[in-house]
Amino acid sequence: MADTRSLNFIGLMLGAATMMVMMVGSFVVFDHVTGRMHLDDGLSIVSLPEAAR
Questions:
Q1: How many CA atoms lie within 13 A of 9 on its CB side?
Q2: How far apart are CA 15 and CA 44, in angstroms?
C-alpha cells in the first residue's frame, strides 16, 4: 500500500511547480504582447494607391 502522506506531498510539490510555470508563461506572453504593441505604435500605415486597387 502506498504512503498517502508522501503522495500528498509529491502532489503538492508538482502542483506548485505547475502553478509557477503557468505564472511565468503568462508573464512572458503578457510582456511579449505589450512589447509588440509598443513596436507597432511607431510603424507608419502604408496603403496602396487608388490605381493599384
A1: 5
A2: 46
Q: Which tops the pLDDT comparison, 8 or 39?
A: 8
- For 51, the grid coordinates are 490605381
Task: Calculate mean pLDDT across residues 13-36.
Answer: 92
Sign of the alpha-carbon torsion through 27, 28, 31, 33: negative
HSE (side-chain half, CA atoms, 13 Å) at 20: 6
CA distance 35 to 27: 12
For 22, which DSSP code? H
Closest CA to 11 of 27, 3, 26: 3
Compute the average pLDDT of residues 6-28.
Answer: 96
